[in-house]
Design brief:
Blueprint (H helix, E strand, L loop, with lengths): L1 H6 L3 E2 L5 E2 L3 H23 L3 H4 L5 H29 L4 H35 L3 H9 L3 H18 L5 H6 L3 H33 L8 H15 L4 H13 L9 H4 L7 H7 L2 H9 L9 H6 L20 H15 L12 H10 L10 H5 L3 H4 L20 H9 L17 H4 L2
Antiparallel strand pairs: 1-2
Helix pairs in contact: 2-4, 2-7, 4-5, 5-6, 5-7, 10-11, 10-16, 11-16, 16-17
């Protein structure tokens, strides 16, 4: 019964797996009845309301219960084996070894059930198993391990004489509910974090209709590059968030510079080049963004040391910043800009990346972007505008600007210079 209560309110984790606190009563069943009792409790006690309401397909229900059965029986076998091994040890040492055996059994249950759930989610969604594990199972691992001692205590309380154990075990609903609440708070906090970062990125987008969505596209390309490079999942997430926030410092750049259609003079260029520093200062007070700040600060540094703001070179530039620099340049070149209404083609942009490889860009990272699927690199159809309604209409002069932008730009005369260079070196400003 306690397992049914613990399974009643599962929490959906970011990648789609569901977590409940039924782990503790199943561990208690392992202690009390071994593999058979654990298997019965795992199959019957983990029935969820979603299944009864038909929200889970029959094959999904079958898979979920089969995975829990396998995991519970395996845990029971491991615990029984540890008991047999420690029978000759008496006293405190024997009890301690038995508890260690239960911890091992809990780890077996955790690894088996987690692996099966991750594989199912990965096959269903196309997200790599490593990503699902890191964001879902790995994130709640400390809480799951903490449920093993709770399950052991439940088993000991249940064996109290004169029927006391039956009602005393019900008191464990409180710590189980507290653990379930911790899962829920984790999901809520993560969602709030993501929404806050998205709001900051939208604040930058609100400044310039030409770069609307730029940060999201840079983040998506940089994340795809990081996965091809098989970087650790925590580092990929840092690069992803830094991609969304890499231009947040442009909030501090005046409109007459940020939106200028002609070339920037020396003083304007100096001011524009301050946006990485401003961006790093904006996120610095947020402890959760401490790892992203260095990437925001250095994403305009050049591989040969001639970038800004500090002239850092080569491998002294954080790897994430070198990835963002390539993704940022490609996305900027293939987008319209105030100084260049017509985006460069994919082929020309790739040519610029190759040309500046080893000068502006890390020569080992440029091929990673070039090898990405075009579905990742190509601009997706614009979705609903998430900016405030009052910003949708633009300024009264915007119809004239739009008309000018719609006109086909005449080719530049031979020997003349465009209002700004079309090179990667300028497009990442």
């Amino acid at each position: 019964m306690l397992t049914l209560v613990a399974s009643a309110l599962p929490v959906r984790l970011p990648q789609g797996t569901f977590a409940s606190v039924s782990f503790a009563p199943i561990i208690a069943a392992v202690v009390l009845g071994g593999p058979v009792a654990a298997g019965v409790v795992a199959v019957l006690g983990t029935t969820e309301g979603r299944e009864l309401r038909g929200r889970v397909p029959w094959y999904g229900t079958l898979f979920n219960h089969a995975a829990l059965l396998i995991s519970a029986v395996a845990a029971g076998v491991v615990f029984d084996g540890s008991i047999s091994f420690t029978q000759s040890v008496e006293g405190t040492a024997g009890a301690l070894l038995s508890f260690v055996g239960l911890l091992v059994a809990g780890a077996v249950y955790y690894l088996l059930s987690g692996t099966l759930a991750v594989l199912a989610i990965s096959l269903r969604t196309g997200v790599t198993a490593r990503t699902v594990w890191a964001k879902d199972i790995g994130a709640i691992a400390p809480n799951l391990i903490g449920l093993v001692p709770l399950g052991f205590l439940m088993a000991q309380i249940f064996t109290l004489p004169n029927g006391v154990g039956w009602w005393a075990t019900a008191l464990f609903v409180v710590p189980l509910f507290t653990t379930r609440l911790a899962y829920h708070r984790y999901v809520e906090t993560r969602e709030l974090f993501e929404q806050t970062i998205g709001a900051l990125a939208n604040a930058v987008d609100a400044r310039d209709r030409y770069t609307r969505g730029h940060s999201g596209r840079v983040s998506r390309i940089a994340e795809a590059m990081s996965r091809v490079m098989k970087l650790p999942e925590p580092e990929i997430e840092i690069i992803k968030w830094a991609g969304l926030l890499h231009d947040v410092g442009k909030i501090g750049i005046r409109d007459n510079i940020l939106l200028k259609e002609g070339p920037l003079d020396r003083e304007e260029r100096i001011l524009m080049n301050q946006h990485p520093t401003i961006g790093a200062e904006i996120v610095a007070p947020a402890r959760q963004l401490a790892a992203e700040a260095p990437l925001i600060l250095t994403h305009h540094e050049w591989f040969n040391g001639s970038g800004y703001p500090a002239g850092v070179e080569a491998l002294d530039i954080p790897r994430g910043a070198r990835i963002l620099g390539v993704a940022d340049a490609y996305e900027a070149m293939t987008s319209a800009r105030p100084y260049r209404k017509t985006p460069l083609s994919h082929e020309i942009a790739i040519g610029e990346l190759r040309k500046f490889s080893g000068i502006q860009f890390d020569p080992e990272i440029v091929p990673i972007l070039i090898g990405l699927d075009r579905e990742i690199l190509d601009r997706r159809p614009e979705g609903p505008d998430e900016l405030p309604t009052m910003l949708h209409a633009g300024t009264p002069q915007e119809p004239e600007v739009a008309a000018a932008a719609a006109a086909v730009e005449p080719p530049a005369e031979e020997g003349s210079s465009p209002s700004r260079p079309l090179l990667a070196s300028d497009d990442v400003s």
